[in-house]
């Protein structure tokens, strides 16, 4: 795990890979629970029998479910320390290049894309790529924006 302590350490890491998280298996039960919470019950996510004959050969995770996993997927990849708080500020860009089939494993790779100081600390952008085991095309690529309050 990469640990960066304070603004100077974070700024020096621009352009560097912050880390790679552990593999996480996508389970149908979690996809079904996400469908319940969001109301997105599209058959490609929740109807196992119908999805087996569909374009992906089985059910797939919602793109937003994959995106929602970023904190868990990166929990053991890196840690930013020495801040009063870290605030999720939003997303600059999100893409879902490849479907994530239920039963496959994913992990996240994070790179510090940018750093900009402000009155309270800094605003950083982390490019996160969700890799799918045995698939060259990622399931998600997202630029997350975080405020680091010193």
Automatic annotation (TrEMBL):
Q: Which InterPro entries match?
A: HotDog_dom_sf, MaoC-like_dom, NodN-like
Q: Does Ribonucleoprotein show up as a keyword for this record?
A: no
* Domain of life of the native organism: Bacteria
**Which keywords annotate this record?**
Plasmid
Q: Which Pfam families match?
A: MaoC_dehydratas (PF01575)
Q: Which SUPFAM superfamilies match?
A: Thioesterase/thiol ester dehydrase-isomerase
What is stated as this protein's family in its record? Belongs to the enoyl-CoA hydratase/isomerase family.
What is the protein named? Answer: Uncharacterized protein
Species of origin: Cnuibacter physcomitrellae
